From TrEMBL:
InterPro entries: ABC_transp_permease, LivM-like. This is Branched-chain amino acid ABC transporter permease. It is found in: Cell membrane. Residues 1-20 are annotated as: Disordered. Residues 1-10 have a biased composition (Polar residues). Its main location: membrane. The keyword DNA repair does not apply. Keywords: Cell membrane, Membrane, Transmembrane, Transmembrane helix. It comes from Streptomyces tauricus. The chain crosses the membrane at residues 33-53, 65-86, 107-125, 137-156, 203-225, 231-252, 264-280, 286-308, 315-333, 345-365, 372-390, 435-453, 487-507, 527-554, 561-579.
Length: 609
């Protein structure tokens, strides 16, 4: 008798069905290989010449040495290759993709593709046609296109289409199909659940945090030092897609978990990295931008107490910055000051913070019983009243206190313990000039504000702020004195803004009413301050700092757009709020409010971070 036996075999991988296929009809194994090969070829292309003449900015005529926009394409190619190799399960690279690699591959490939094709188009437009491209430019264009096509063919779980009424009009059916198409595209870039990482020794976790901070310093230094318009546009493209790829891979969440575990080390490392910024610059040009960003960020962090923690919409917050600046200017020995007083900096700074706090209490006491839009209108009115008052206090329309539209000028440079902030100094072989000196001082002020924000948010009063922000009626029913709690938030936020204003007065030499408007093309102003808090992430420490840096840096670098500068800037903000309404660095609780399908965290902190 013959016995037939079936040998057990591992079932072969099936081709994806219609509900689990890519956006492009290429077999997944071929698409993955195409994305990997395209990423490698993209890296190689950056070491070739892209054009024959050095008339295009960045001089892309060299072999073996990437320059200008080629460096950004190289970064996009490296990210694509790393994520693609991680998708094959290569040991040592799987740590980079705890939430899955496919979505990260797509976004990294788009980063390289968008930057490379932008460069090719810019070369052709500026130099007069595609004939000005060298082989490297063609290789980059083809390689990045191949990588994108391969990445978009990777499978994903397609959502089932919603049924529609056959009696719908053609327009309604078109809208239904368009909504489904958008849902499919969103699913194609969706990230999986972040897998927990294996436990690392504490020193390894700290090294990862240090590496992340060093990367952040490098990215910021590169972005602030972009020398021409094309390079900054390419930087925005690469940074945007690159950050999105890292977030989809779960790498951002993994690093955030480590920083949350080592909060003190992270805060100390962040400020050490920031303090190293002036020493990376060859001149004082970019330190100027850096110190203004710090002033803007510090005031935004103070506003974050009022808006992010307490939930009070303040549209006149920049007035407290002006109160601190005018107070410090009047008592710092300026010849334009009506008072013949020259206090030391620490006294002027404390006085500026105290006067701003008094104004905060005086404005908040009669108005904080209002809520929502009514409170916003009152604070907006206060901001305008402050500006008009200092404008009219010129001795003609009112008392001679602020010198009217001319402001208080010739504010002397600070001199603390013999250290003249207006002079160049050599520290450890590095020469730092005036704005670098003020950058380091403002960084110290920012550290003070961060400590105050952190300790306040973790305190009993901080929990009361969060309770009022979430539901004021319920908080009052639980016995919280809402008026007192909100008044403390208003006064503390005003004091922190006044402290920053005391430094701003010395940095700018002159304090004028035009610097403290509700809306203006140059920050800080109330509109930009509120945008920095919302854009960065309300209720967090790092969110307003990042938001303020972007809101100051991007308009400064988009000046080549001329009259279309604010249009492009506003469009970017609209798109960001549409696709990431919780902000760039949100607290976890607020993120869950906007993305209910996200996985809830095991533990929420007192402020929801």
């Amino acid at each position: 008798m013959t016995t037939q036996t079936n040998t057990s075999r591992t079932p072969a991988a099936k081709e994806p069905t219609g509900n689990n296929a890519g956006l492009i009809g290429i077999p997944p194994h071929i698409g993955r290989a195409l994305a990997t090969g395209g990423g490698i070829l993209t890296i190689i292309s950056t070491f070739l010449a892209w054009t024959w003449t050095d008339e295009f900015p960045g001089d892309l005529t060299y072999y073996g040495y990437p320059g200008g926009l080629q460096v950004l394409v190289l970064i996009g190619g490296l990210l694509t290759t790393l994520f693609a190799l991680a998708s094959y399960g290569i040991k040592g690279l799987r740590w980079l993709t705890p939430a899955g690699a496919d979505s990260a591959i797509k976004l990294a490939a788009l980063a390289a593709f968008a930057t490379a094709w932008y460069t090719v188009i810019a070369i052709s437009a500026q130099l007069g046609g595609l004939a000005n491209l060298e082989p490297g430019g063609w290789v980059a264009a083809v390689a990045t296109l191949a990588a994108v096509l391969g990445a978009l063919s990777l499978p994903f779980e397609r959502p089932a289409p919603d049924p529609f009424d056959p009696e719908d009009t053609s327009w309604e059916q078109f809208r239904h199909k368009a909504r489904h198409t958008g849902t499919v595209i969103k699913a194609a870039f969706a990230a999986g659940t972040t897998k927990p990482a294996r436990k690392l020794p504490p020193y390894a976790e700290i090294l990862i945090i240090v590496a992340a901070l060093a990367l952040g310093l490098t990215v910021f230094t590169y972005g602030i030092g972009t020398e021409y318009d094309e390079l900054f546009v390419g930087f925005l493209i690469t940074t945007g897609f690159g950050f999105a790829a890292a977030a989809k891979a779960g790498l951002v969440n993994r690093v955030s978990a480590l920083t949350g575990k080592h909060r003190n080390v992270t805060m100390l490392g962040a400020f050490v990295a920031a303090a190293a910024f002036p020493f990376t610059q060859s001149n004082d040009q970019y330190a100027t931008i850096g110190v203004y960003i710090l002033i803007f960020a510090t005031v935004a962090l103070g506003l974050n107490i009022v808006v992010g923690l307490a939930g009070l919409l303040d549209l006149g917050y920049v007035a407290f910055l002006g109160v601190g600046a005018y107070t410090a200017a009047m008592v710092s020995g300026s010849p334009s000051s009506p008072f013949d007083i020259h206090l030391p900096f620490w006294a002027a700074a404390l006085l500026g913070a105290a006067v701003a706090m008094v104004f905060g209490v005086l404005i908040g006491a009669p108005t904080l019983r209002l809520r929502g839009d009514y409170l916003a209108i009152v604070t907006l009115g206060f901001g305008e009243i402050f500006r008009i008052t200092v404008l009219n206090a010129d001795g003609t329309s009112g008392p001679d206190i602020t010198n009217g539209s001319n402001g208080i000028s010739s504010i002397p440079n600070l001199n603390i313990l013999g250290f003249d902030f207006g002079q160049e100094h050599t520290i450890a072989g590095f020469t730092i000039a005036r704005f670098a000196n003020y950058f380091l001082l403002m960084l110290l002020i920012t550290l003070v504000v961060v400590v105050v924000f952190r300790r306040s948010g973790d305190s009993r009063i901080g929990r009361a702020w969060v309770a009022i922000r979430e539901d004021e009626t319920a908080a009052l029913a639980m016995g919280i004195n809402g008026f007192r709690v909100k008044l403390i938030a208003f006064a503390l936020g005003a004091a922190l803004a006044g402290l920053a204003g005391s430094v701003q007065a010395h940095v700018t030499y002159t304090v004028t009413p035009e610097q403290y408007q509700f809306a203006h093309v140059v920050p800080p102003n109330s509109a930009f301050l509120l945008a920095a808090v919302v854009l960065g992430g309300m209720g967090t420490i790092s969110g307003p700092l990042v938001g303020a840096a972007l809101l100051y840096l991007i308009p400064a670098k988009l000046q080549f757009l001329g009259n279309y500068q604010l249009l492009a800037f506003g469009l970017a903000l609209v798109l960001l709020m549409r696709f990431r309404p919780e902000g760039l660095i949100p607290n976890r609780r607020r993120q869950l409010e906007f993305h209910e399908e996200a996985e809830a965290p095991t533990v929420l902190s007192k402020a929801g971070a």
